[in-house]
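Task card 7
Instruction: Convert sequence to structure tokens.
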Amino acid sequence: MKIKLSIVLSILVLNVAIIAQNTNIKYPETKRTNQIDSYFGIEIPDPYRWLETTESAILNPWVEAQNKVTEDYLSTIPYREKIKNHLTKLWNYERFSSPFKVGDYYIFSKNDGLQEQSVYYIQKGLDAAPEILLDPNKLSTDGSVSLAGLYFSNDNNYFSYGISKGGSDWNEFFVVDLQSKLPTEDHIIWSKFSGNAWYKDGFFYGRYDEPKPGEELKAKNEYKKLYYHKVCTSQSDDILILEDKEHPKYGFGAGVSDDQKYLLISVSEGSSSNNLIYYKDLEKDSDIIKLIEQFTGDYSFIDNKDDKFFVMTNDETPNNKIVLIDLKNPSKENWQTIIPEEKEVIRSVSRLNNKLIVTYLKDAYSKVKVFDDNGKFLYDIELPAIGNVSGFSGKNEDTETFYTFTSFNYPPTIYKYSVIENKSELFRKTKLPIDTDSFEVKQVFYPSKDGTKIPMFLVYKKGLILNGNNPTLLYAYGGFNIAMQPSFSVARLALLNSGVVYAMANLRGGSEYGEDWHKGGMLEKKQNVFDDFISAAEYLIKEKYTNPSKLAVQGGSNGGLLVGAVINQRPDLFKVAFPAVGVMDMLRFHKFTIGWAWVTEYGSSDDKDQFNYLVKYSPLHNIKKGVDYPATLITTADHDDRVFPAHSFKYAAELQNNASDKNPKLIRIETKVGHGAGTSTSKAIELNTDIFSFLFYNLGVTPVFN
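Output:
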């Protein structure tokens, strides 16, 4: 129901302000209602429920008022413009992706430096002159439309690409004739969390039913369907391949084997790594066959050798193993273990030239080993340092591939790898406007509250003095079986050059040490993640890297939840906090977009036992009156349909209403941006400018520009 603007303004009462005494900030007063929910006999107030609306007439005045307060505060920071200019200068360097092969062609992306989006190029052979294949910068005037995937037909006659508008998870797909470079009339809409799996003259893809008008960025995403689309036909004519009306939360991901013989379907229910595997023999046009019928582990199809599947799984082996499944005898007792579980976690596997290239995680950094098809170890691939490797894509017929190596002080460097000779050669090195040799990387291990040893990477300028007074930024994620690995950030160089210590902790909940490490930080054990993070802060203080007045904490999405929880539990440990696009309302997260999928990770307030532990750490529900919380800059975006921005809205309102007036509590709400993926260069520079300005100002540090 629409509400007149005059009524909206009277509800918000924007002219009434809560005054932060020491900061002279006048926060917009956010109207509190009498909304109360009952959970198993326990009444929980939700006074800011109205901020969950998508009605622009209701929401926009509040958003505009909050952004004005934030901008007014940031604009008084004397070196804000200098930081922006410095970041713009640092960002202005060429960067490339690893090439991948398509028939006789190679495809790669390149950004000249300050282009809003990277441009994709095609070249015939590695010595030919590259030509532009697709320039996403021409899809919008402001860089708000980004590429969300690039897929090629098996005969190399067509390619399809996905786009995201404003950073939304909703994707649209288009098709281009690869020879003429002319687009066809194909247009696919309402697809989400799906690629294109080409087969013959069309592709498989997943989509949801069209949401109600106005609910596109809020409504639950359920009842996913798998379709086949034939080129040069209408989407309304697409063939329904699979749906499951009895399981509204089932999601379908499709792939086609390189020999075009099998359609592979991964079936998931929630964000848990457990999945099912179905397949269809495309040569026989058979029915869909259920190969893995129970959620007993994570299964990833690698490749097939005729009617035998190479599969990576953590079923009964939390650090993963590689098995060979014969479709003629698919029962588990007949599986052949090709590469057994080891102490290090198997991260990814590629099959090239009848060899398995296996990337492992050792204490959160990469190691790569090569085996033959029978699992016999052949040799290691030597990497230049402790860091993170990605790539090794290709088909089994390929004898060469590419990989990218990077670390905190090692810009992304692309190598060409000969599978036959086990030889890596430098293919493309990143040239930066700053010397990274002046920065040092160190890995330490510290005990958490229960004694568990947690790894943490430390990055800082060489010559650091452990005087307990270094400004420090502590970052982590801790969830969803995602490993935090060494990575390069040109923006981070601006922090390091100004004497900031960057610390990244590898908390439980991730995949650094396999599924056991993941399970140690999920559901009823989520408090372990917060304890791990708090212990990281205590370690940095104990070892004289920093002190609470010089320590900032940062995390995004699940990491935003992490930041919100730890500053509630230990506000005395941190001076500054950056919760980004966070899951802040642990009692209602499952009611929006894809939030229901996180129940397997967090639990649900619909379950009494799970409610009891969720309410104890939910960031929104554990803010206490009059506490000196750190200076906090909350960041979110209007097109975030992964973590609905109302999480951050309600959290900001509650923090402003209840916290003491000692430190600023601000929210920065970006427009035409989503959860983070596809953010344009200019928007990224502006966001980092504001975060760094807030950081330096509240830590009492003057940044260095050179």
